[in-house]
Amino acid sequence: MTKTKTLATSLLSLSAAAILALVGTTSANAAPAKDTDSSGVAVSSHVASDNGAADYWTPERMKNAKSGDILASKALDRSRLLNLGKAPVTEAPGALSSVEGQQASTDSKAINLKTNQSETPVKHIGKIFFTLGGANYVCSGNSVTAANKSTVSTAGHCVNEGPGAYATNFVFVPAYLNGSAPYGKWTARALYSPTQWASNGNMQYDTAFAVMNTLNGQRLADVVGSSGVQFNAARGLSYKSFGYPAAPPFNGESLKSCSGTATNDPYNPQFATQGIPCNMTGGSSGGPWFIGNSSGGYQNSINSYGYGSNSNTMYGPYWGSVIQSTYTTAAAS
User: Which residues form the signal peptide (predicted)?
Assistant: First the structure.
């Protein structure tokens, strides 16, 4: 398995290149899974010009932003049509979760509230706001270790329609709580996603990275810190995921988490995704998965999708060489 990790103050004296060079292996009992894609590694990028994005996101617009899971649902529908050269996409019990489906549910109390817990704000985890197709959306994201100290991880569908246009008015609000932005609103200067996502909307690669502008002359990681990342890890690990679910019964105003051991998606195995017990709803898309039981572990996936309006499993993409290449390109930009 491949790791990149920030070790807080002990590494502050090292160069950015040295931090990115911290690569090692471990002797996990299960053999690391191989990236199953055979179409090659390619990265799609977009230069953002969102100088007015911070002002655009007024408290009212942030409150009324739609869930990014709507975009995930649309991407899944497109993948059914394209078929991506893989096995046909099968229907799980219920459609891919989306804000519309959840709001249409007549019994939101059916969601198992035991599959999440409330969290106090974490400095490097926050909400993401953006515009796509003339509509405003909200997702979740996390500041990750990078040479540029300015990189945020999120879901591919929170950056690019998959396939389609890239987002505008893209901002990251770390440690968001009840409408507050204690560390400011950070605007994007560039957005990166795997070409397999940007060109085909392949759910297997539903991950993206945003490189943020400086704010008041400071870089993001210098203000809120960052998480180490890990690629090509063993499957079936235990994770703790975080996000800001906004669809009922949640309101998106505070951080939630889920914990559990990952298992493969039984409905669409061609996605090569894994799921953990979790009922987080729309708005949590792009929130980080950490190996272990805290926000201090290596990030190894993101919240991508669930099945049905009362889903109790959250699925995330396997971070193999394709997503690693996207991260490496963004982190060095």
Answer: 1-30
